Amino acid sequence: MVFPLDHEDASLQGQPKGLYIVLNERGLWREGLLKKCKNGCELGAKSCCAITIMFNEPDFLKQKCQLEEIITARGHKGLQNTVSKGLNSVSLLTIRRFSRKAFRYIDIYRKGLTRKIAKYVAKKYHSHRRVPNAVFDDIAIFYDI
Length: 145
Ligand SMILES: [Zn+2]
Hints:
There is one protein chain. The protein is mostly helical. The chain is 51% helix and 0% strand. The chain contains eight helices and no strands. The protein has helices at residues 19-25, 50-55, 58-62, 66-73, 79-88, 92-110, 115-124, 135-143. Helix 6 packs across helix 7. Bound molecules: zinc ion. Residues 37, 41, 45, 48-49, 52 line the site of zinc ion. Zinc ion is lined by residues 37, 41, 45, 48-49, 52. This is 702_t:CDS:1. It comes from Cetraspora pellucida.
């Protein structure tokens, strides 16, 4: 996909070849081929435009993303295994507690409360995912709002 480092034109050495050259080298370029379909590609199309042709090439389909390559090269077994191990190391009860707390904070911030008051309210109303609207009366008493 890149020009070789010993390419005759020094300005192209190590540079990406581009869609036209890659498809031409593979014998897939044809006259009038658009880079991309103007109104989007039809579902299941494999040769409607240059990008779709390239996307369906076997080596492109096998290509991992750069992040996955880096992680694999460093010896990590994969994100799926890591996430699975991480989730298994925490009890379901703890996950549920943090989830409820997160929902409570979402509700509190959605109601427009600020950080200090939010902390107080989250502590006081810890039994549900939502904070009752009566919280504004409660806050007014303590904070002279
Ligand atoms: Zn297309």
